[in-house]
Write a structure and sequence with these properties.
binds thiamine diphosphate, about 280 residues, binds magnesium ion
């Protein structure tokens, strides 16, 4: 992991600004998709691809790369935009989101786009896949790490907790889960649909190390991964509090933007806001 300076943080903020504008354009052009979660996770993904993960856009299959698993596949506009920023694809290709034959499917399709580690969309599967990869890495005595981003809605999936138990049992200290805790899901606020609290205690009870961060604060996210690197014999989960729709005032903290895309007028307003916030 690289150390970071004020200038690097500004660089990450500028990247996140571009990523958010691309997310809005892609979704407005596609006419369908998931806006709030994508905007909310943008900072986490920028931090991962530009400061945390060991990877090479010119050689996506590099055997020594860290493995990134996006479990909540519906927020893939954010992942595609970050991958474009990192050089896995050209920014021009982003406008093909959800189009017939595009490499940028509405949910990630591993065999279409080099750099995607898994196909995802059905919620609750990613942590099992990531735990399997982490165990394989340990068996092969590899140094690469596995990072799995999940949503808070996915904490309601039974399969997630099977993977949590498995990773704790196998002491997968090469596995880090990140929860995008934005408190919304498809039908409303998470704490109303199915309360997760006390989430930290639940993970601790399954023998995980737990960290909590502000998912929009680059320093906190990066510091959390520095801490993770020191942890032995336990997997770590970073519970990252985020604001769904972050950066666009009329989308923030509103579950209706879970699966809605901007109209032409909303697109223009959102772009103006995002342009002023860099
Ligand atoms: C197994 C499964 N059940 C239902 C869905 C439909 N679905 C897609 S997104 C979503 C909401 C999940 O909550 P979260 O991921 O927290 O949403 P966000 O924060 O992005 O609004 C649901 C129910 C799905 N993709 N997979
Ligand atoms: Mg959510």
């Amino acid at each position: 992991m690289m150390p970071f300076s004020v200038q690097q943080i500004d660089d990450l903020k500028a990247r996140a600004g571009r990523v958010r504008r691309n997310i809005i354009s892609m979704l407005a052009e596609a006419g369908s998709g998931h806006t709030a979660g994508s905007l909310g996770a943008a900072d986490i993904l920028v931090a991962l691809y530009f400061n945390v993960l060991k990877h090479d856009a010119q050689n996506p299959g590099w055997p020594e790369r860290d493995r990134f698993v996006l479990s909540n596949g519906h927020i893939c506009p954010a992942l595609y935009a970050v991958m474009a920023e990192a050089g896995y694809l050209s920014p021009d290709e982003l406008s093909t989101l959800r189009k017939l034959g595009s490499r940028l499917q509405g949910h990630p399709h591993r065999e279409k786009l080099p750099g995607l580690e898994t196909t995802s969309g059905p919620l609750g599967c990613g942590l099992s896949q990531a735990a399997g990869m982490a165990l394989a890495g340990k068996m092969d005595q590899k140094n690469w790490r596995v990072v799995c981003l999940m949503s808070d809605g996915e904490q309601e999936e039974g399969n997630t907790w099977e993977a949590v138990m498995f990773a704790g049992k196998n002491k997968l200290d090469n596995l880090t889960a990140l929860i995008d805790h934005n408190n919304i899901q498809i039908d409303g606020f998470v704490e109303e649909v199915m309360p997760l609290e006390p989430l930290k205690l639940k993970y601790e009870a399954f023998n995980w190390n737990v960290l909590e961060t502000d998912g929009h604060d680059f320093k906190q996210i990066i510091s959390a991964f520095e801490t993770v690197a020191q942890v032995r014999e336990k997997p770590t989960v970073i519970i990252a509090k985020t604001i769904p729709g972050k950066g666009v005032s009329f989308m923030e903290n509103d579950p209706r933007w879970h699966g809605r895309v901007p109209s032409k007028e909303e697109d223009e307003r959102a772009m103006e806001e995002l342009a002023g916030k860099i």
